[in-house]
Predict the structure of Beta-glucosidase.
Amino acid sequence: MTMTVTTRGTLPSYSTEGRAVFPEGFIWGAATASYQIEGAARDDGRGPSVWDTFSRTPGKVAFGHTGDVACDHYHRYPDDVRLMADLGLGAYRFSISWPRVQPDGTGPTNTRGLDFYDRLVDELGAAGITPYVTLYHWDLPQTLEDRGGWTSRDTAYRLADYAGAVYARLGDRVRNWATLNEPWVQAFLGYGSGVHAPGRQDAASALLASHHFLLGHGLAAQTLREAGAQEIMLVINSSPVLTPAQANDPAAEPSEADAEAVNRVDCLLNRQILDPVLRGHYPAEVLEIVERHAGLDHIHDDDLRTIHQPTDVIGVNYYNPCIVRSSPGEPGNPAFPGTEDIEFATLDVPKTAMEWPIVPTGLSRLLLRLSHDYPEVGLMVTENGAAFDDVVTRTEAGERVHDIDRTAYLDAHLRAVHAAVEGGADLRGYLVWSLLDNFEWAEGYHRRFGIVHVDFATQRRLLKDSGMWYGGVIRENGLA
């Protein structure tokens, strides 16, 4: 069927009779992360990361799982790239393992480690798949953590050195570079609540780490740009912050106290990251909290100028909205320093196996809000997906995974993406999380996000029904 483009005001409308069709050139792909899929934890000179240490700490990861083997992507990448090609993926977002490239986080590069990414990029190129490289997806070299990790200002400078080393090897074939993945998560879950590596539980450390992540982004962006990088991205975990009433009715008016709670959490979750990067300053509400918990001495005079580098795209990782309301006397959430008197609530809606509420409209609200507030930067959905309790069943045609819940989840969220595009969001593409079932951080291997099932005992890959469905969406560039 031929797509017709009509005009509604100044916005293009991408539609056909009964179908949601995406703009020509819309990027379809999938995403993974190094520690979650590569395995080969001790191969070819790789050093230990904070996640190697954390996963070996009793009680930190479900069932004592580690990423030592994961999906064995390090050895099986040619087969995985063939899977991507069969699905019709146009893009593959993966991360570089810093301790594979610089085992101690500094000094000369490990040639054998870089050789792996060299081979992977060439394999993707031969398959016609565009590589989207994320330089840092949480696997900090343990040696740097021993020196203070992200609470140390020096780590930001080490990130820039590492970025330069990777670009020198891959920059001739890689156009798209993300400096960091979800700095908020690592800062506040890794150093604040301690549920992620490195497992510290200290508000001041989390706030220092958050600033140093942004400084590292700015320094790495400078290094990449000076070396010739064409597109620089920062990937964030972002959520609309809403009261329970607003989640059910966008027109609902919160009370003054609830509105203050929403604004405070939005500043901590979203604007604490976006405003320094895209506007060159912190929200006043954030600075007040930082000063109270950590002081301001770690924010040097020129830091915000360094952080505020030209950024081409913001990668948006969306899973669910953040639901809050005023609750006098409620203690502060350790992942959100400064949230005394605020309750983090849930919604009476269907949930994923992670107990995350399924709210597709939150994604369209988020994308439209970001486009409205930060019109100078393009957007890409760099992660979106869901964990469900998959079952492999045997049929006459062979084994299958009939993951209807995941297919329904993806369908609903892609319709939300389409609504945002029609509403004017400058959205470049959509990358499903995740290509493969993998090591799901503190949840180990028992939470499956993949559109490809992985039998971790045999490493056999099996395309799920959701993967077949997603391949059809890609072929049609739209939804029926």
